[in-house]
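User: What would this chain look like folded?
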Amino acid sequence: MVVDAHRGAAPLPAFSHKAALRLAEHLDQEGAVLRSGIDALVGFVSQALEDAEDKGCESVVAFATSAVRDATNADDVLAEVRDKTGVELSVLPGSEEARLTFLAARRWFGWSSGRLILFDIGGGSLEVAAGAEQTPDVEQSLPLGAGRLTREWLLGDPAEASQIRALRRHIRAEIAREAGAVLRGGQGDRYVATSKTFRSLARACGAAPSADGPFVRRVLSRAALADVLPRLFAMSSAERAGLQGVSAARAHQLVAGGLVADAVMDIFEVSELEICPWALREGVILDQLDQMARLP
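Assistant: Here's the prediction, encoded as structure tokens.
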């Protein structure tokens, strides 16, 4: 994502390029990133460098999240990216990923939102953060990413009902174990969700399309999700890709993402999550802008 970074600027993209690497699904049984995943990562970083040069970027910030962070061959992956592209990928710890995503949501919704409780479903992890200030007082990263769960638990297309039930139990146990640390600081004044998975689920449940722009209020209702989930369970990935707002690259992991979203709203007793269009990338850029503002 290319932005005009100056003091007081909002991280609105002048140019954006995305590719679905799905690294959390390119792992062997020992948790090492496969050759296919490494090649895809190197290819994307090379393309990003070309784009940055073409758009006249003066600096580049490159980072990786849970798929690389948790890989057993992470050092080898990072070394190969560095050797072949010259880029030193910064691996964000889970707590930092949660903090930066929370920063983006705080800036989007503002101080009037009070205590924010944030959820972000990535490919490898679920980030949870909560607080009433700019920096959260709780930062969690749970191994409940939609890609990871799909690879490890849902083997059919569509998956068998027994697999879905087992995954549902696993997700709820993991979230419930950590929910107390979030709720000890109090209930949220605003419950927020970010990430493509949450946006896809919201769109499948009737939220406004992306073509309506980022300033349209979008929510994911628990009641609407409960109505849609059984239909998602019965669909193949190809059928899910035909739903409004669901891309072919994400369709296969929508069931796992839906189970996580449903568990979050149930355990935290939330009737709806408000979708935030800003997420981790915007948080990284905002953090960089804040550091620029502190320079003399």
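The radius of gyration is 19 Å. If you want, I can go into more detail on any region.
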